[in-house]
Structure prediction request, 731 residues.
Amino acid sequence: MDLRFTDAQEEFRSRARAWLGANAPTPGTLPSLDTAAGFEAHRAWEQTMHAHRWSVVSWPEEYGGQGVGILEWLLFEEEYWRAQAPLRVSQNGVFLLAPTLFEFGTDAQRSRFLPPMASGEEIWCQGWSEPDAGSDLAGIRSRAVRAPGDDGWLLTGQKTWASRGAFAEWCFGLFRTDPEAERHRGLTYFLIEMRTPGVTVRPIPQIDGETGFAELFFEDVFVPDDQVLGEVGRGWNVAMATAGSERGLSLRSPARYTEAASRLVDLYAERLRIDPVRTVRNAEAVTRAWMDAEAYRLSTYWTASRVVAGGSVGPEASANKIHWSETDLAIHRAALDLLGPGAEQTAGNRWLDGFLFALAGPIYAGTNEIQRNVVAERMLGLPRG
Amino acid sequence: MRFAFTDQQLEFRDALRQALEIECRPSDVRAAFEDPSPRTPRWSTLAEMGIVGLTVPEQHGGLGMHMLDLVLLLEEAGRVALPEPLLETTALAAPVLATAGWSRSGPWLERIAAGEAAAAVAPVDPAGGAAVAGAVGADLFLLHAVDDAGRPELHALPAGAATVEPVASLDPTRRLGIVRWDPSPATLVASGEEAHLLLADLADRGAVAAAAELVGLADRMITLAAAYATERQQFGRAIGSFQAVKHLLAGAQVALEFARPVVYAAAWSLDGEEPDRARSASLAKAYASDAAAEAARVALQVHGAIGYTWECDLQLYLKRAWALGGAWGSSADHRDRILASLLDER
Prediction:
């Protein structure tokens, strides 16, 4: 065991820090990515990163990456959050779909989809949830039938809560291709171009008033056969690989939380000087939030070391998702408590934005209640039902 | 960066687990409730396996290994609520005496490695009273004092040099006692700055070692409760199929999953004398104490009334977990230390 990084890893970190220091936009200067203008501004940042091969460091060079390992990716993430660089508008693609494409995609699919994903030219959204299929994802009803020319599928139905759905160019979605099969077995995973005739997008304003997600309506939308990811009828398995990335190592690197926890302690120290009597009452909440972030960092390196050694991440991803989502909330609640009566003020209040963002964490990527079922059934062997 | 144990460390863990499954069954822990002597045939077995002398330098008959080699073994000790003082002897007394490196430490180290010296170690910060764990029946006492100028001293005493007044514990295998003794030049191991550093090291080691045992205990309690929930039927189905029960156990399991790497990282920090080792040790103890406390509460709740009986083996692990939760600093004590160190950096 050695928790220090190698010289080569430290050198990689220094390069990342130097590049981000010179190129990352001043924190807080880009408009929200959940607005049309903000979306494009964030896309431009993705393009800048891509031009210098920092957008997808862990991907092979042929697809626009640097071909580095998972530990280097974690170091890059630490530097990214340290620089307070912009949120990744391409996150559904690079963090969720890409690992799935590497695992299940054909060579042709990887060559077609990964480079424009890396460059920000094509931004992806996720079409999984439906009005009547949220936690019960296998209950989805949107369906796909063979197209008359037998060269693809016609998709019909409704998807909802598609983050970045209002502005994205592409969507990865689950549709029922065999209504007769057992409900987990009749699903297929499609890659859908949003401008295909028959796709209608209805933006949904989120709790903060911005258009973070959308409803998607499909009416006989043609999708060619080469845009099926994995086998027809095996969509559930492919989707669970994506969900593993969403809950596990890929979507939420610990840097996001350690950076916020460090700012939380800064805030505590600052408030302690101004109003010590009130501030010390928050000592436990602040310390616990910092501890949870630090534990997440260590746990991630523990898991990453297992992956580097050839291991895999199973139902632990569900435990992980519970932990990071609750940590995010704990950090931001502690900060708002420290701010006291000032917490409700929106102007320049990054903690409030972060709090609203954190509130979604226990809901998306499968609610934490569903994750607790997974932990109980698959880690502890409790009976289903 | 390689945050993983070696195959050899994992094999040693597996070997101990196998041995303890036979040698430390719940009935054996119950027997130790009645007769809590520290040096049992089981202690001899552990000494023969090299475990008691694991941290004793090779020239004194041990294996010359470190906290990182021991941490998984302490977790196994916790899993079975091992009644013998592996924590006090192997995790604390041996490394501290070996660091002191005094000529007078040598004979003690050899006796430890031979399984002939079970240690009791006074907590550095005796919150909650001055009772010393492992004191009743101990062969070796590691105690601290202050000299006339108020500087710290560390002493090693043989059994005859101290009198022990037993103090009842919820867990009789803790062998608590008030130790009365007089510091003398003959027992002095270290003084002044050296003693100060050794005592700081002792506090960190105590925190990490107790954290490792708590992780093993939490795992055992969750495993027992999950097994019970799978077997126990109500409303015509296993109670483990109810989400209310699942979510209790899942919460405890998540806490345990995140405590483990924290404890392992702290063991690594201790061995490497990393600059943040005190904070790592505090994080480990606070996290493991909380995880074990949650596991204990949940395991008892899932067992229902049967878990509240003397007959149910769960009590053996509950009591050890409650006792170790406060030993070597409570969760709150360590959170304080963590926050202070974070503020110091600013």
